[in-house]
Automatic annotation (TrEMBL):
The gene is Dgri\GH18978. This is GH18978. Keywords: Coiled coil, GTP-binding, Magnesium, Metal-binding, Nucleotide-binding. It comes from Drosophila grimshawi (Hawaiian fruit fly). CDD domains: HflX (cd01878). Residues 291-462 form the Hflx-type G domain. The lineage of its organism: Eukaryota, Metazoa, Ecdysozoa, Arthropoda, Hexapoda.
Length: 519
């Protein structure tokens, strides 16, 4: 395990001391608000490097090759972004949010388990707001509509009703913004609603970006989040000029457009470098020959918790927040046969997010597509777990398609193990209906059968097999096998006291090497 951990240190840049980087990143986000940031002292990267002083030189050179990240801190850009997204980097400011969940009247009834009801959407919208520290839900309301495509979103009657409610809420308690839980609002819709409600209006895209900004602590995640913001800003600006709202406040000057283009160019160059590094690391891992299990699933399903339970890794911190994990990180574990493997923790999925927002994370998810097996973690206690499962499965299929370069005949997913988590929260009847692996990462139940299944699949996919070999006790063969194969157990050979029987898990290639060397 020690050598695997050492290999992971080299292979996984995002693992640079998470606690330290998090603190640094938080400082960084507050630096425009006057808190002494790290820019005045050292660049984020230099500071990160300092934190990783103990790491080996190879990791250091990889960090250096990501270049200077200072361009991400740009006041001029922040102003442009703030205008389009109605958010600032100051997540420390308390917000009292009025959530509106619009839905189309006729689609409100759940006819199949895969349909998500407005009630469930409202729960998800509330969870999004609770994922931001100091943000509170002042009131949450479902709003039935004829259509979601209306220019003003709400009809005049509904709008009057909402304005009255907002006025009343303002008298009773403080509200500071309205969150319309819809993928994106057009610029015109946002502008119109803000003038009617006299409050800033946010859509799902801006709220999710706010969460991603907060949770992105490594260089790669920060680059990806920065990239994810740009399509939204461009779309808002385009919409603004198309709707002739220049006078009302948001349109991009030539200078602002140039700021966005320059930022995009730099981000692309940095992300390309990251992608190239990932490819190198992937090759390296292949050479090291460790089997890989990618752990994927809907956000908050318990992916990080499961890996923590399977690896007993203290550094992993499951959190009851959406998009808590934003980096693909690798964690070493052992199978019952003592074979070591790597679990990859990944970014969670979420439905009703506009395409574009997650495209930037595709590079990291590509690794999952190339793993030996996929472990799909599902939250069985969630009322929409069937819909969540369907969403994850269809996203995985389209990811595999894009990894195969759009060739449907080549787009094959690795074998998938379905894991139903949070069984401690559901009735035995619900558990029987689910089938598959029923576990609780929190209560650590159901893990043994799961591990056996992971082992079987990994051995199948990687062409490894279990066999027993008889070797001289204490000889070089024994040492070689301990180094190059997974030793399940050993026992004395009853017929020959100078020999020992070793049960090992070994690939054909390694077995051939062994034969060449010793037979
Ligand atoms: N009751 C219960 N809670 C669980 C279980 N597994 C995880 N949780 C809780 O669910 C929340 C989310 O867990 P995480 O492991 O962070 O989920 P995740 O899938 O990694 O989430 P993201 O990284 O945000 O996509 C945390 O509060 C966990 O403590 C379980 O088996 N039972
Ligand atoms: Mg996680």
């Amino acid at each position: 395990m020690k050598c695997l951990r050492a290999a992971l240190h080299v292979a996984w840049l995002p693992q640079l001391r998470p606690a330290t980087t998090q603190i640094l990143a938080r400082l960084k986000y507050t630096q425009h608000q006057g808190v002494k940031g790290i820019r005045s002292r050292k660049s984020f990267y230099e500071a990160q490097m300092q934190a990783g002083q103990q790491e080996d030189s190879e990791e250091r050179s990889m960090a250096m090759s990501s270049g200077d990240m200072r361009f991400l801190d740009d006041r001029a850009y922040d102003e442009v972004a703030g205008g389009a997204m109605r958010i600032s980097r100051d997540v420390a400011t308390a917000q009292h949010v009025f959530i509106l969940q619009p839905y189309v009247k006729w689609s409100a009834k759940r006819t199949t388990p895969n349909d998500v009801r407005p009630d469930d959407q409202l729960i998800e919208a509330t969870a999004l707001i609770h994922s931001l520290p100091n943000w509170q839900v002042a009131r949450a309301l479902k709003v039935p509509l004829e259509s979601l495509e209306r220019k003003t979103l709400f009809g005049s009657g509904k709008l009057t009703e909402l304005k009255q409610l907002i006025a009343q809420l303002r008298e009773e308690r403080h509200i500071s913004c309205v969150f319309v839980s819809k993928g994106t609002l057009s610029f015109a819709q946002k502008q119109f609603l803000e003038s009617e409600f006299q409050l800033p209006v946010l859509d799902r895209y801006s709220v999710v970006i706010q969460i991603l900004r907060l949770h992105a602590t490594t260089a790669e995640a920060r680059l990806q989040v920065a990239m994810a913001e740009l399509p939204y800003i461009w779309a808002q600006a385009k919409d603004a000029s198309a709707t002739q709202t220049r006078r009302q406040g948001y349109s991009l000057s030539d200078l602002q457009k140039e700021i966005l283009r320059t930022r995009e160019r730099k981000l692309r160059a940095e992300l390309d470098a990251v992608r190239r590094q990932r490819q190198l690391l992937r090759q390296k891992r292949k050479q090291q020959n460790y089997p890989i299990a990618a752990v994927v699933g809907y956000t908050n399903a318990g992916k990080t918790s499961l890996i923590k339970a399977l690896t007993v890794e203290d550094s992993l911190q499951p959190r009851n927040q959406l998009f808590a994990t934003l980096d693909v990180t690798a964690h070493a574990g052992s199978l019952p046969c003592n074979l070591q493997l790597i679990y990859m923790d990944t970014v969670g999925f979420m439905s009703d997010l506009p395409t574009g927002l997650f495209e930037c994370f595709v590079a990291t998810l590509e690794d999952a597509m190339l793993a030996d097996i996929i472990i799909h973690v599902q939250d069985l206690s969630h009322p929409c777990h069937a819909a969540q499962r369907a969403h994850v499965e269809s996203t995985l299929r389209s990811l595999a398609f894009s990894v195969a370069g759009g060739d449907s005949s080549a787009s094959q997913l690795p074998p998938i193990i379905n894991v139903y988590n949070k069984c401690d929260l559901v009735t035995p009847q619900a558990q029987t209906a689910a089938g598959g692996h029923l576990i609780s990462a929190r209560a650590q139940s159901g893990l043994e059968p799961l591990l056996m299944d992971i082992e079987e699949q990994i051995l199948n996919v990687t062409g490894r097999r279990k066999l027993q070999v008889r070797v001289p006790s204490g000889g070089p063969e024994m040492a070689w096998l301990y180094k190059n194969a997974a030793v399940v157990n050993t026992k004395a050979d009853e017929q020959n006291s100078e020999k020992i029987l070793m049960r090992v898990v070994i690939s054909q290639r390694t077995l051939d090497q062994f034969k060449r060397q010793f037979c």
